[in-house]
Amino acid sequence: MTGERDDTAPLVSVVMATYDASHLVPFAVESVRWGTLEDWELIVVGDACTDDTAKVVASFGDSRISFHNLPENSGDQAVPNNLGTQRARGRYVAFLNQDDLYFPDHVETCVEHLERTGADLVWVPCAAIRPATPDALHDGAWEAELMGVPPRSGYSPHAFYFASTWVFRRTLAHRIGPWRRPHDLYVTPSQDWLFRAWRSGADLRFLPHVSVLVIPSGTRRDSYLNRSSVEHEYFADQVRDNPGFRERLLESAAVNTVQACRHELAERPLAAVLRSATFPVAALLTRVGVHPASATMVLWPGGRPGLGGRGKRVKAIRRFTGLP
User: Fold this and answer.
1) What is the pLDDT of residue 260?
2) Is 0.85 surpassed by the pTM of this model?
3) What angle in degrees, to the nearest 10, is found between the helix axes of 245-267 and 269-276?
């Protein structure tokens, strides 16, 4: 990572961390391949995968795609994403979670914004699909919510930004360093890295263009134990083939996001009051260089009062999704 780009390197390096999810990887890979920007490489890094992920990746027969399998399982995304970033050759780097999908214009739109503004990193809001049954999908009764929108126009540590929504200059990764491991953090490694980038003075820009669809495994119980996903099959077809899908998606996300906010204010006032008690602590933590969500994770882990610890959020997600 000593230079911006050599003459033979792709413009963008997409890094995908995965673990025993060969039934999901094809959808994510295809969402890169159907993009309007074609000058890319896709680096898929397995966290010591034991399934047929290597065979699935090779089946695409695309020289722009490579697969690297770690010899030992690390149990989180930090190690695979760090390896992928180290191998990246592009001027720009993007992450793509194994269970997320790019809209065709995502990478090109973000790169254009980076080149026009000179920013170090740009992120977009995403539409996150709430868990849906096959019947709900068949009836078009699925729901989405908007995520990754900051309380102001620029970066704020008081929101969550899926790594799949970022595109950044490779030189930024060199400046900030690798993702840190969950056992050293109260927040997730992705949010810690972004916070460190912001604290370093990097120019982080919000592009209000929904171009990533998120179907998070972390909100689906025992998702790692299931070897199929009707949700991914359905939404991949919609993103690729339905011109009106994004409009429908945004309508659902807008309504559900506002309803969720109203619910918190009107029907859970005590929770809001208790959570606001962490605000002074959060402000102090930000000032001294600690992610402010650490206060919430310690005092309000899992959405209830208690005492959290380093890495507990990631451990809770692993248990919920069926990982050991």
Assistant:
1) 85
2) yes
3) 80
